[in-house]
């Protein structure tokens, strides 16, 4: 649907969407990052805006264009910056969607000067420390009363369980109102146009399943958000 034709069923809602992937500096010219392009987050912002929401997009190193997809775009690079921007916007938001791929760990001591290789010496090990879990904080603190908090999880199946098994366990562990579980790997997920997503509630029950474009996934997720909010 074109923006003008979309139902205005999110009108009056203020939503925050984080998108992209955080980069954790090692030195002024290097970082540790991930493959997230931000396209799913941008699609979520676009869909919400088309349906009448006021949208703040916290944009971490996006490859996708953000042209016209939000009322406000806040560019960030690191997890610390993303956390600060999301929390600031969340204080008056009805819905926060953490679609960004947040680095779990960051270099313990990024250097102010470029790291040099020294002849005859091998590489120095990189010490990492854990980042705060922004989603867990949002769930715990509910920065605005009645706020709906939504997480994303990119999962692959492995010997210990399927994509959905891992998703259910994570939904329960995270306690977000909704967790969108995205199947990745083998040509799916990162950087591809089509997604398969299960939407789970806080106790891991499936509330929606969708296979389609990131825009279709986004619309199904917003439908689930509306249902959750009653
Ligand atoms: N997330 C977050 N802060 C972090 C890590 C993750 O807010 N430090 C959010 C992501 O934006 C996403 C959700 O938590 O919405 C799930 O991220 P994921 O990486 O799947 O969960 P983890 O608990 O980090 O588990 P895993 O060990 O599988 O990486
Ligand atoms: Ca993680």
Automatic annotation (TrEMBL):
**Gene Ontology molecular function:** FMN binding; metal ion binding; phosphopantothenate--cysteine ligase activity; phosphopantothenoylcysteine decarboxylase activity
- Tell me the pathway: Cofactor biosynthesis; coenzyme A biosynthesis; CoA from (R)-pantothenate: step 2/5; Cofactor biosynthesis; coenzyme A biosynthesis; CoA from (R)-pantothenate: step 3/5
State the UniProt keywords alphabetically. Decarboxylase, Flavoprotein, FMN, Ligase, Lyase, Magnesium, Metal-binding, Multifunctional enzyme
Segments carrying the region annotation (Phosphopantothenate--cysteine ligase) are 15-230
Residue ranges of domain DNA/pantothenate metabolism flavoprotein C-terminal in the record? 10-227
Q: Name one GO cellular component term.
A: phosphopantothenoylcysteine decarboxylase complex
**Which EC number applies?**
4.1.1.36, 6.3.2.5
* Catalyzed chemical reaction(s): N-[(R)-4-phosphopantothenoyl]-L-cysteine + H(+) = (R)-4'-phosphopantetheine + CO2; (R)-4'-phosphopantothenate + L-cysteine + CTP = N-[(R)-4-phosphopantothenoyl]-L-cysteine + CMP + diphosphate + H(+)
Residues that bind CTP: 104, 114, 132-135, 152, 170, 174
**Cofactor details (free text):** Binds 1 FMN per subunit.
Which Gene Ontology BP terms does the record give? coenzyme A biosynthetic process; pantothenate catabolic process
Q: Which cofactor does it need?
A: Mg(2+); FMN
**What function does the entry list?**
Catalyzes two sequential steps in the biosynthesis of coenzyme A. In the first step cysteine is conjugated to 4'-phosphopantothenate to form 4-phosphopantothenoylcysteine. In the second step the latter compound is decarboxylated to form 4'-phosphopantotheine. Catalyzes two steps in the biosynthesis of coenzyme A. In the first step cysteine is conjugated to 4'-phosphopantothenate to form 4-phosphopantothenoylcysteine, in the latter compound is decarboxylated to form 4'-phosphopantotheine.
Family classification: In the C-terminal section; belongs to the PPC synthetase family.
Q: What is the protein's given name? A: Coenzyme A biosynthesis bifunctional protein CoaBC
Gene name as annotated: coaBC
**Which part of the complete protein is shown?**
173 to 402 of 402
């Amino acid at each position: 649907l074109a923006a003008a034709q979309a139902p205005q069923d999110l009108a009056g809602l203020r939503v925050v969407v984080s998108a992209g992937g955080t980069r954790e500096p090692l030195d002024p010219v290097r970082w540790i990052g991930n493959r997230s392009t931000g396209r799913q987050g941008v699609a979520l912002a676009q869909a919400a805006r088309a349906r009448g929401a006021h949208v703040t997009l916290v944009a971490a190193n996006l490859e996708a264009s953000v042209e016209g997809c939000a009322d406000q775009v806040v560019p960030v690079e690191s997890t610390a910056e993303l956390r600060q921007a999301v929390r600031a916007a969340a204080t008056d938001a009805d819905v926060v969607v953490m679609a960004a791929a947040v680095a779990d760990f960051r270099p313990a001591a990024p250097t102010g000067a470029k790291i040099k290789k020294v002849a005859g010496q091998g590489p120095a090990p990189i010490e990492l420390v854990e980042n705060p879990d922004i989603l867990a904080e949002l769930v715990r603190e509910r920065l605005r009363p009645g706020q709906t908090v939504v997480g994303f999880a990119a999962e692959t199946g492995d010997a210990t369980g399927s994509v959905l098994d891992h998703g259910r366990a994570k939904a329960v562990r995270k306690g977000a109102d909704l967790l969108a579980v995205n199947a990745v790997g083998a040509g799916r997920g990162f950087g591809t146009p089509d997604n398969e997503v299960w939407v789970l509630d806080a106790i891991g029950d499936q509330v929606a399943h969708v296979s389609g474009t990131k825009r279709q996934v986004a619309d199904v997720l917003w439908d689930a958000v509306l249902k959750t909010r009653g």
